[in-house]
Specification:
The chain is α/β, with parallel strands linked by helices. It has seven helices and eight strands, in the order E-H-H-E-H-E-H-E-H-E-E-H-E-E-H.
């Protein structure tokens, strides 16, 4: 039996109210639940619940990429059009390369469920050897975005983001991520 490589995943929830204790954060628990079912590797989670402050978000992203050496960092929340929604701006400020396809795909998936998906401003990209992806804030939307759209028979109609994430992490020198195909089939091109 093959030993699976441990991977490190950063989880950042941005919310003024959750970070100040007005209500419980739902983003990080939703991410841990979905990733715990989808990823077969042992996962070390690095977590942060912070306010919607651009400088704090930038500092946390840098810490997770540069010091914690996360293979992937997911943010949740702060991607709408409201004045305090600054997660995309903070993310873009720390990236070495952007990957626009992630944001495009997230909006395509979300449009199957809500017309307000066009208001989403999620971005993604690479800092060093870390993939950083902004996700929506609601637990249901997190699962839909990562897992994709399925028809009544359970077949994938629109691929979720996570089907491309393991190969992206391969390409940037991160850990080899294996998935549970029942939750999310990772796509890797056939070797020649």
């Amino acid at each position: 039996m093959t030993t699976l490589t441990p991977i490190t995943i950063g989880l950042i929830s941005t919310s003024d109210r959750a970070s100040s204790g007005v209500y419980a954060d739902e983003g990080i628990p939703a991410l841990k639940d979905w990733l715990g079912r989808a990823v077969r590797n042992p996962i070390r989670f690095v977590e942060a619940l912070i306010a919607d402050e651009q400088a704090a978000i930038e500092a946390t992203l840098k810490q997770m990429a540069d010091a914690e050496h996360c293979d992937v960092v997911f943010t949740t929340g702060g991607t709408g059009p409201a004045p305090r929604d600054v997660t995309p701006e903070a993310t873009l400020a720390v990236l070495d390369k952007t990957l626009p396809g992630f944001g495009e795909q997230m909006r395509q998936i979300s449009l199957y469920y809500v017309p307000t998906a066009i208001l989403s401003r999620q971005v993604a990209g690479i800092r060093g050897q870390t993939l950083i992806v902004n996700l929506p804030g609601r637990p249901k939307a997190i699962a839909e975005t990562l897992g994709g759209v399925r028809n009544a028979a359970g077949e994938v109609v629109v691929h979720g983001l996570f089907s491309a994430i393991p190969y992206c992490v391969d390409l940037i020198g991160g850990g080899f991520i294996e998935t549970d195909a029942e939750i999310c089939q990772a796509f890797r091109p056939k070797q020649k």
